[in-house]
Write a structure and sequence with these properties.
By secondary structure, the protein is of the alpha/beta class. It is built from three helices and nine strands. The N and C termini lie close together (6 Å).
């Protein structure tokens, strides 16, 4: 049985709030770089990119990180200087054990960013690694037997979250 925990409008409101928080924390940054974890995290990153561009004049670059495609997981392909001394925000849809974000951190860290921050639409707890998000749309207390599913359809855009 599925229980809808975020409808489309609620999901967009959470992402918009995260965008404002990113700007508030990084208002003096010359640029913000978003790295969305493929596939659903990248869709969330694209929405954040859109909101960031409308609420601030800070340039935004957005990349996709596919952890299933080493050794060149970034799209578009990266040069070392793309992240060097930049503020990088890694974006994922759901934070659970921290395993995915730990792998993403290792990929991003090798490019020598000034700062790495983490944004997630839903944080459901149960960490196995010391990963803590900087920006969270919704904190949700779950059991180990429950599953959080994010459904995203890009055309037309529709994003919803379910607890199963």
């Amino acid at each position: 049985m599925s229980l809808q925990i975020l409808n489309h409008q609620q999901s967009l409101a959470k992402i918009r709030r995260i965008a404002y928080q990113i700007i508030e924390r990084n208002f003096s940054a010359p640029q913000i770089t978003l790295v969305g974890i493929f596939e659903r995290g990248f869709h969330v990153a694209l929405l954040l990119d859109s909101y960031l561009r409308t609420i601030a004049s800070i340039p935004v670059q957005t990349y996709s990180l596919n952890l299933n495609l080493p050794p060149k997981p970034f799209s578009p392909p990266l040069q070392f200087q793309d992240f060097e001394n930049q503020i990088v925000v890694i974006v994922d849809d759901v934070l659970y054990t921290g395993n995915t974000l730990l792998k993403a951190l290792m990929h991003v860290y090798q490019f020598n960013p000034q700062m790495i921050q983490i944004a997630t639409l839903i944080d459901r707890g149960h960490r196995h690694y010391p990963i803590s998000p900087d920006y969270v749309g919704l904190e949700l207390a779950t059991t180990f037997h429950e599953f959080v599913r994010i459904d995203i359809t890009p055309e037309p855009l529709n994003i919803r979250a379910y607890l199963e």
